Queue: 2 jobs
Job 1
Amino acid sequence: MNELEEDEGHFAILKANGGSTVWRRKGLLALANTALILKEGARMQFLPECLGGSKLFGPGVMEQQWKMSRLWQDSENVPFAAE
């Protein structure tokens, strides 16, 4: 609970008994959207477990996916703030 007082960005607590508490300061609709996103995220993690669990990607798969999205940049061409 001390963390909640220090950082107002926290919006949920996961309890030791498996439960959770979620709140928002932006109104009921924002709370409902947040709860729905958390529920759907939990479901997306649960479903693969029923089918044998998640599997690691093979070598180069993530790079290929990023290149297909046209968001990939080679590390040599990425500008850094220190430069």
Job 2
Amino acid sequence: MDNNEFAKALYKYRAANHLSQKQMGDMLGMSRQSYDRLEKGLRKATYEEFRRCSKAIGWDISAENGIANPINVSPRKFHIFDLKRRFLNGTIDTADTLLEMEDLAEAVDCPELLDWANRELVGYYASDGVPAYRS
């Protein structure tokens, strides 16, 4: 994968997931400016940056030819980040956020997260928005 293809793939992924350059930079452990230069193809990624981008975006780095092959996987890390962003921006309400967390907890087989989401959801519905144990 050459630098231009890599830059286009980063942009395509970021746009498809409605993420800002700052959010992508934060997720990849770099500044917005550094990410911007990668996305525009103004600089080549270091091996470590390429590895982090590939892991975060869900690319399989082929051992045979050393290139990144996009795979159709939406990384759960970005799903959680997007859920947080939508909740904080007010584009999703508390109940829907908790329902998505339940789905995510089931998908990753995390009983602790599922239990927490269930308790929060029951408390949310029972006490008009604030679970009793949080009062």
